[in-house]
Amino acid sequence: MTIGILYIGLLGGGLVFALISGLAGWISDIDGGEIHVDSTGHLDAGHPSPISGTVVATFVTGFGAGGTLAHYLLDWPLAGSLPTAVGTGLVMGAAAFGILELLFRKTEAGAEFAVEESVGREGEVITPIPAGGMGEVAYFARGQREMGAARATDGEAIPRGTLVVIEQVSGPTLFVRRKS
Fold first, then answer.
1. Distance (Å, rounded) from C-alpha 106 to C-alpha 96?
2. Exposed/middle/buried for 74, CB within 10 Å: 0-12, 13-18, 19+?
3. Which entry of 3, 11, 97, 172 is 20 to 30 Å from 53 by CA?
4. Global pTM value
């Protein structure tokens, strides 16, 4: 078997693995001691990992592609095609890792918010707030509809459907006033 056939096999194998892991992400699960890395490239702590199925498949594909081009197109011997294959694999794997990290950072950054961020937002009373009592308010935060227990800051009753402004947050309770 020549090195060229090995390069072609790795190129094909990497492409097939990337397709399969993309269609059924659970195939590329990797368990490693205390840390679990899933097919999306996340460690349990929620950070992308360079040892994910997608990054490894991209490295193998790049290795095979670089080696195939260097061996067959440029007609380089093993001493030239092997470093080219390794370099191409590393560059493609690093690019895949960088893209995954960017995507995960951007998508996760907007998914969660602190309740304190709701101060100043407009909301609507969905469960009437009785005088001196608790009701419920719905409001939008980071593109999602959120709901929370609410009290009127002035202690007055606020009927359902009234637009309010969240003035303060204490624990899980929103303190609201009627919107003027």
1. 15
2. exposed
3. 3
4. 0.50
